[in-house]
Amino acid sequence: MKAFYVSVLASSSFLASTAYSQQNEIYLYNWDEFLSDSVIEKLNDTYGISLKQQYFSNESIRDEVLLSERRGAFELVVIESMKLKALAKQNLFHNLGDLQQSLSSNFDSRWVDGCGEYGIPYAWGTSGILYRSGKVETPKSWGALLDPETKTSGRISMYYEPTDLVSAALLMNQFEPFTNNEQELRVAYKTLQAQKPHLESNEYVVDYIRHPEHLANIDLAYGYSGDSYILNDIDPDPTWAYIVPEEGTTLWLECIAAINNGELSQQATTILSFLSQPEIAAQNAMDSWFATPNSKARALTSQEYQNDPELFPNQEVLERSYLYQPLELNSIQIRNRIVDSLR
Questions:
Q1: To bridge 114 with a disulfide, which of 130, 253, 256, 259 should be the other Cys (CB 3.0-4.6 Å)?
Q2: Which of 206, 163, 197, 228 is closest to 3 using CA atoms?
Q3: Rounded CA gap, 135 and 311, in Å?
Q4: Among 188, 154, 229, which residue's Cα sits nearest to residue 341?
Q5: Are the beta carbons of 87 and 332 closer than 8 angstroms?
Q6: Strands 76-80 and 249-258, how do they pair?
Q7: Which domains does the chain have, with CATH numbers?
Q8: For residue 303, how many other CB atoms are within 10 A of its CB?
Q9: Angle at CA of residue 75, ends 50 and 61, nearest 5°
Q10: Do residues 26 and 267 make contact, with C-beta atoms less than 8 angstroms apart?
């Protein structure tokens, strides 16, 4: 689950400690608001490992970092399952098959299979529409974003990430979101061209948690399950809600992978195992409020968490949801060209 924001490494997002040597500092490349501070603190207290984070909010730029020498700054990264499998073919990640096997009893097999041998399941969810419930009627269709009414025109944020952006336009036009059909992709492009004049932003709306003055200009946004809680925590007008449109949605799976910069450190392995412990995964999921793929962890969470329909949609929603699928190279290139043209 997702402009490029970089945290200051002295921020509260990680626990810095002068008591431990440089070799016990491990750097994670992650989404913002996607790891519990209390879990980081407990990791430090238990193992003497200081986990530090740098954040991305644009997957394309994250991938540029991973494909460059800059990846040497990190040992771990949170990455969507299909992109993980694609980049793993370029020897960018350590094979975690043995570790994954030792942890597999904590996870539903579909999530283990989703991450493959190069990642540990971390979080999952849906894509949909974020809206201010006090100002906007509950959207029913992707058309609320892509073919908006006059009153919401100019107050819309659309995330220009190639796969997710084009998938929304395909779904609105009754096509499968991971199609490789060029004609269907052309139709999606025309839909996105028509939407462009109605946009206030083409950035991920959660970026605006650092700029609430910009968030005030947005009433509708493309987003992901769990995002409404992040927005409501910082917005003076906390009326954000989330809905999966009637045409369906995409299901994403985020994995933690170990970047191949040489030998895999024991500290990195310890972190992966630590975050997969049911009690730790439960605390992390509740503090960050995302859906955990750790089945043992879910049993340790609160009833409020377990019964949250935004995190755990009902069967009817799941039946109109599409798990991320690999795309043909030409299809990926078309999606990238669509975004470049729209920008």
A1: 253
A2: 206
A3: 23
A4: 188
A5: no
A6: antiparallel
A7: 22-124+251-313 (3.40.190.10), 126-249+318-342 (3.40.190.10)
A8: 7
A9: 115
A10: yes
Q: How do residues 175-205 score in pLDDT, each as one tens digit?
A: 999 999 999 999 999 999 999 999 999 999 9
Q: Confirm whether pTM is higher than 0.90.
A: no
262-320 pLDDT, tens digit each: 999 999 999 999 999 999 999 999 999 999 999 999 999 999 999 999 999 999 998 98
The tokens for 305 are 């968490």
Tell me how far apart the alpha carbons of residues 175 and 181 are, in angstroms, rounded to a whole number.
Answer: 10
216 φ, ψ (degrees, to nearest 5): -65, -20
SS3 318: helix
User: Rounded distance, CA 276 to CA 332, Å?
Assistant: 32
How far CA 240 is from CA of 191, 235, 310, in Å, comes to 26, 9, 12
Using CB atoms within 10 Å of the CB of residue 18, give its burial: 0 to 12 exposed, 13 to 18 middle, 19+ buried.
Answer: exposed
Q: How far is CA 169 from CA 180, 189, 322, in A?
A: 14, 8, 14
Q: Is 314 exposed, middle or buried (0-12, 13-18, 19+ CB in 10 A)?
A: exposed
